[in-house]
Amino acid sequence: MPDFSFEDKYSDEVVGIDEAGRGPWAGPVVAGAVVFHNRNESAWLLQELNDSKKLSAKKREKLYAMLLEEQAKGNISIGIGEACAQEIDSLNILQATFLAMKRAYQNLDKQPKFALIDGNRTPKDFPCHTQTIIKGDALSMSVAAASIVAKVYRDKLMQNLATKYPYYGFEKNAGYGTKLHMAGLEKHGICSEHRISYKPIQKYL
Q: Does 129 have pLDDT greater than 90?
């Protein structure tokens, strides 16, 4: 379970950063950035925060709502950044992920001097000092919170896109390559949200 061990190594505030949506065939990649200003947050929230992949959708949404409540109280800050399908195609998914992370950091109301980033790749030219943590979303409280923010925000975004592009099941698959998604591609071709640099999409061009 995550805790504040990594955050406590720094004398100043630290932001945790994680992404969602590197694997899907459609939609943006989204990054979340979360700063805990104090330890006055809900005890249940701190107890239940974890890697978003280990949580049910219902629990993720409840934790996301609580994170927004804590932000409204001034206990935490949240930043969200996106890189669209066209940016993914022009930059590649790794560089687009780094761009989304940078945007999430810049969208915080105040930017800390240190960032904990999930994974093992350090974004080039990041605006502050960074430390990468493999499986950081299961180890650091800030990164775990960022993983939930990124995942829930992106899922909601894909649900909204499903009303505009109803053929692919985005509301169910979030852009991943499911049978329903492939059936939509076979019948209707691609839409502007598809990542045309991805091999599975190229056969539908």
A: yes
